[in-house]
Amino acid sequence: MLKKKFSCVKVDQQKDGITWVIFNRPEKRNAMSPTFHVEMVEILDHLETDPDTKLVILTGAGVSFSAGQDLKEFFRETQDREDLKSVAYKNSMWRSDKLWMYNKPTISMVNGFCIGGAFTQCICTDFAIAADDAIFGLSEVNWGILPGGMVSKMVTDLLSQRDAMFYACTGRTFTGKEAAKMGMVNLSVPKKNLRRETLKLARELLEKNPNVLRGTKHAIRATQDMSWRAAADYLAAKGAEIKQRDEARGHDAYAEGIRQFIDEKAYRPVFSPYVGAADGKTTAKGGKPRPSAASKKKAKPKRAAKRK
Ligand code: ACO
């Protein structure tokens, strides 16, 4: 549990393993100052190994997710100070380097403005859900720089070439609804449902085997720029790593998942994870089949007939 208080970020840890990390400079539209970055590095470092945190949701207080880098504190006040500038840049890398391969699932809940450098954390969290009326924009062209850091590269990788070029060169804004259509976020929903939909996704992820989930997200990231052969090798090694991590908690996802489906008929993998995936308890150890799976079990003769 993280008890420390921060000046630019609020951390709200829930009992179910969901930790909210709330950018908390609403009066500055959650613009990212050097201090903000220092705090984010400390918070994310801590949460990555914190046993009470199973999943992290990033969002912003007030009307903004984040208005990008703080034009005054991050840019102007460091421009003639190479020392301050390089530290600020280094600390701001949490948005890409840390989030990209973070060991726990991450979600951006984009509640309002998501501007410039804030694209980085939105893109580098594993999932992003936006309010329909959230406003996205690459404002850099309007005030005098290119979308730097890794933003130009990221939007080119994520969006179509047409969209990346259009929005980077015009600085025009687009809504959460449009962001979902373009693949910038997974989905957009009316603002009144934003929290509910985000929690729905978070809870769905928490039902999975955490080691399998971790290996899967790393695999999706890491194989992007690998050759076919390197990817096959990496994936085999990742599979072995999952097994090893599961063994450490006295579990074998592979055997358990198959056993519960084939022998016990306790669940259907197409519709839900096996019993005890999240907490390592198995049906053999007293875990209960899911009610939905148990009720479907009554229809067993029909299913058996279908299989013949
Ligand atoms: N850096 C520093 N201060 C900011 C930033 C920012 N990126 N964004 C907003 N603020 C401050 C404003 O200066 C203002 O401060 P003040 O009350 O002390 O005058 C306060 O936040 C509120 O800003 P308003 O413009 O009054 O708020 P409004 O809701 O009308 O507009 C908006 C919000 C659209 C986000 C506007 O503030 C804006 O255009 N901000 C600049 C966004 C930007 O270009 N970010 C840099 C991206 S590039 C990069 O990140 C690399």
Task: Please render the helix and strand layout as text.
Blueprint: E1 9-13, E2 18-23, H1 34-49, E3 55-60, E4 64-66, H2 71-75, H3 82-92, H4 97-100, E5 106-110, E6 113-115, H5 118-124, E7 127-131, E8 135-137, H6 140-143, H7 151-158, H8 161-170, E9 173-175, H9 176-182, E10 187-189, H10 194-206, H11 210-222, H12 228-248, H13 253-262, H14 291-297, H15 300-307
Parallel strand pairs: 2-3, 3-5, 4-6, 5-7, 6-8, 7-10
Antiparallel strand pairs: 1-2, 8-9
Acetyl coenzyme *A binds next to helix 2, strand 6 and helix 6.
Write down the overall geometry.
Answer: globular
Write down how many β-strands occur, each being a DSSP E stretch of 2 or more residues. Answer: 10
From the 3D structure, determine the CATH topology of the largest domain: 2-enoyl-CoA Hydratase, Chain A, domain 1
Ligand types: acetyl coenzyme *A
Uncertain regions spanning at least 5 consecutive residues: 304-308
CATH architecture of the largest domain: Alpha-Beta Complex
Write down the Rg. Answer: 22 Å
At the first level of CATH, the class of the largest domain is Alpha Beta
Distance between the termini: 53 Å
Mean pLDDT: 93
Lateral arrangement of strands in the main beta sheet: 1-2-3-5-7-10
Number of domains: 2
Q: Quote the beta fraction.
A: 5-15%
Biggest sheet record: 6 strands, mixed
Structural class: alpha/beta
